[in-house]
Write a structure and sequence with these properties.
Layout lengths: L1 H139 L3 H49 L10 E5 L4 H7 L4 H10 L2 E3 L6 E5 L3 H17 L4 H30 L6 H9 L4 E2 L2 E2 H19 L3 H10 L14 H11 L4 H8 L10 H14 L7 H18 L4 E7 L4 E6 L6 H18 L7 E6 L9
Parallel strand pairs: 7-8
Antiparallel strand pairs: 1-3, 2-3, 4-5, 6-7
Helix pairs in contact: 2-8, 4-6, 5-6, 6-7, 8-9, 8-12, 9-11, 9-12, 10-11, 11-12
Amino acid sequence: MGVIICLISLILIALSFVVGFYIRKLVSEKKAGSKILEAEKFVEKYLKEAETKKKEIIIEGKDEVFRLKEEIDKEINLRRKEIILQESRVRQREEMYEKKLEAAESKEKLIEKKIKSAQECMAEVEKLKQFQVKKLEEIARMNKEQAKNYIIENLKNDLAHERAVKILEFKQDIEEEKKNISKNILALATQKYAAEHIEEISISVVNLPNDDMKGRIIGREGRNIRCIENLTGVDLIIDDTPEMIAISSFDPLRREIARQTIEALIIDGRIHPAKIESIVNKTKEEIDLDMLKAGQKAVIDVGARGVHTEIIKLLGRLKYRTSYGQNVLEHSLEVSHICGILAAELGENITVAKRCGLLHDIGKALTHEFEGAHPDLGAEISKKYKESNEVVNCILNHHSTSEVTTCINAIVQAADAASAARPGARRENFENYIKRLNKLESLVSSFPGVERCYAIQAGREVRVMVNPDKINDDAMVILAKDVCQKIESELTYPGQIKLNLIRENRAIQYAK
């Protein structure tokens, strides 16, 4: 019984599972069916919406195509109208050109007729001309060529006269205008640059602390003063003027050496020939350095760059050179500045113009040592030390020795003349005096055996130092006579010249 109940319960449980399974299956099938229906409805809905959108897009596309077609049609119509208008214009122009061509052809025909008639007239004129020429030849008794040459000759003479008159008038006008312009420019240049005028004299003065110093400078039996005069080439004037010694020499460099030597001796207090010689040598070295500094300062003032050291030294030497009483270095600086002003007024290179003006008288630093005119010497030196061709040409031609080829050359000539023509700048007599003394010294120095010579006493005396190894006492008398004869034959001078020959022997040994 229990077993049967268990079986029945198992069967019921199995049936309940089967029934539940079928019930769930039916429920799930119902739910799936409802979902499928919903999905079909959803798909159908969106298909309808898509169809609607498709129709709308197709309609919009058709509208856009229609609109674009209308725009294209409008543009085509406009282009067609423009083409028609241009065709009409071209047609009108063609018609106009055809009319002009017809008119030109008619004019050409008319011109041809006129040319023919003119040719016929020219032929008649030529016949008449030949007839008249024959008659004229018969009357004038000359042929055509002779008459032609006669007329041409008369015309040449008339035209030459008229041309000469016109050229003279133009030249006078140009000269007047050139003078006025050049005067204005030079006046402006000289106004912008005003230099001091230093008058060179042939005497320098040394102030003494007391009159006893005069005796010490003279020395025992005049040995000190004689040593100073022989070494420096000056003439010391010691007179009754209190506390003062005058130094006389035409050469500014010698006067300066003597002046500084005497001042150094006064300060040192030891005055004897050996000390004098030492101080003279030292003074010469100091003056050489001073000249170098003067040359460097001049180059810096002008603003010249790349100037060779040797040219700077020569510029410094111009500090102790004079030309017609005018200091050559000051004159060169003045010319350089005036050249710069003139170049600025005329639109030329200011730097080159100032450089040319500074170096234009560089040859005067060598005139006493070398033969030749200072423009030639200056050009040679500047060319040697690599100055430009323009600078060399300006130096060579600054005294108008040849034709002016550049504007800067003319500027240098004008500036040089303006500087020299300043009132009180130069003195002709003093320059002649300097030249005469330089020539006197050069003449005496040309004799063999002469070591050095100095013109003193305004050229009335020449002090000559001879080499004692080459000239003995007897030869001194012959040398003095020969020198005097050459001076008399080659020089012109007032009064008489005293020739003072000095032969000095020295014995020098060194204790070791």
